[in-house]
């Protein structure tokens, strides 16, 4: 009996079938889980052609319905092709998943495996406008089996009936060992006052999971003659789209105002809680969400984690907590 759940896609003409044991692959920052599976091949339908599989990390610009104009609405960030049939004779050790799939499929099964590099973005989609049913723009990963004479021939047209594909996701692993939270401080000098208003802000940890409340610790030393009437706490999502050039978009995903009075020449210390949730941002076009398979519920996109100064293409996501003190009056 197999312990694996199996995902299967068969080509339109039934000559090849793609099998995977899972659709979520974890990025541990210094390595990514291997994408491995099996292709079942019926050689009688190949007419001497070969069977290849590719894994592609794709930036998709939106609707495919516009492909009639011959414009390409996808850009391959990374793509790797392997030949599965006829087997190339390279002996590789098979994973337990592949052994299990090969037992299931029989002698028509041929294994394949891909090791992604560590500088690829994770699966992320940009939220389309409400009631836009088209394909979201974003970074996707696809595994595709196809029958062809060569893995990459510009003049060879591959019939859709000779292909089968499964979408997978690369998801970011967040270490449970959270580092201490970030801290920042600033002073503001007002005209006509010689002493400053000093603000310290800190978070209790660095990593937050989906749905976690964020506790923002605020310390104020008001040495001025002015009164602080309100404290605004907000969280922003910064989305950096790195393709031909680099564009950054900033969207506020939650913001709360707290009516706190901090009188002249006084100090104040308090923690505020704020919880960013996708459910409160369903109308925001272009917000980054974790890459979806079909239309199951998702979350706000995970922060892109990377090692050192690796150049990552695609969509990079980060978050910023902002604290604003509201001081009425001139100056």
UniProtKB/TrEMBL annotation:
The record's listing under Pfam families reads: Arrestin_C (PF02752), Arrestin_N (PF00339)
Please, one GO biological process term? signal transduction
Give start and end of each Arrestin C-terminal-like domain: 193-329
Q: Which domain of life is it from?
A: Eukaryota
Q: Which SUPFAM superfamilies does the UniProt record give?
A: E set domains
Keywords from UniProt, A to Z, are:
Sensory transduction, Vision
Please name the InterPro entries in this protein's record: Arrestin, Arrestin-like_C, Arrestin-like_N, Arrestin_C-like, Arrestin_CS, Arrestin_N, Ig_E-set
Establish whether keyword DNA-binding is in the entry.
Answer: no
> Can you provide one Gene Ontology molecular function annotated for this UniProt record?
G protein-coupled receptor binding
What role does this protein play? May play a role in an as yet undefined retina-specific signal transduction. Could bind to photoactivated-phosphorylated red/green opsins.
* Family (UniProt): Belongs to the arrestin family.
Q: Which PANTHER family match?
A: ARRESTIN, ARRESTIN-C
Protein name in UniProt = Arrestin-C
What is the organism of origin for this protein?
A: Mastacembelus armatus (zig-zag eel)
- Taxonomic placement: Eukaryota, Metazoa, Chordata, Craniata, Vertebrata
């Amino acid at each position: 009996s197999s312990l694996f759940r199996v995902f299967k896609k068969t080509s339109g003409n039934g000559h090849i079938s793609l099998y995977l044991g899972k659709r979520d692959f974890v990025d541990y920052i210094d390595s990514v889980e291997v994408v491995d599976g099996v292709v079942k091949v019926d050689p009688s339908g190949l007419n001497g052609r070969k069977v290849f599989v590719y894994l592609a990390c794709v930036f998709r610009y939106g609707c495919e319905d516009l492909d009639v104009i011959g414009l390409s609405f996808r850009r391959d960030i990374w793509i790797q092709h392997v030949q599965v049939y006829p087997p190339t004779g390279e002996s590789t050790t098979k994973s337990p998943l592949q052994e299990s799939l090969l037992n299931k499929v029989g002698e028509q099964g041929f294994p394949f495996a891909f090791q992604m590099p560590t500088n690829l973005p994770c699966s992320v989609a940009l939220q389309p406008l409400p009631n836009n049913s088209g394909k979201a723009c974003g970074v996707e990963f696809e595994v595709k089996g196809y029958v062809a004479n060569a893995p990459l021939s510009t003049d060879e047209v591959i019939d859709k009936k000779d292909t089968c594909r499964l979408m997978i996701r690369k998801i970011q692993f967040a270490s449970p060992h959270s580092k201490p939270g970030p801290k920042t401080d600033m002073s503001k000098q007002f005209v006509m006052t010689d002493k400053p208003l000093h603000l310290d802000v800190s978070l209790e940890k660095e990593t937050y999971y989906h749905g976690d409340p964020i506790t923002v610790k605020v310390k104020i030393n008001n040495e001025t003659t002015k009164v602080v009437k309100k404290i605004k706490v907000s969280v922003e999502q910064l989305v950096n789209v790195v393709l031909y050039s680099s564009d950054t978009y900033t969207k506020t995903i939650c913001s709360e105002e707290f009516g706190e009075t901090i009188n002249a020449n006084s100090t104040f210390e308090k923690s505020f809680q704020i919880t960013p949730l996708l459910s409160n941002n369903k109308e925001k076009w272009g917000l980054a969400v974790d890459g979806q398979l079909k239309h199951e519920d998702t979350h706000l996109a995970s922060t892109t984690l990377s090692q050192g100064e690796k150049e990552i293409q695609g969509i990079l996501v980060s978050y910023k907590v902002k604290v604003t003190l509201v001081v009425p009056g001139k100056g």
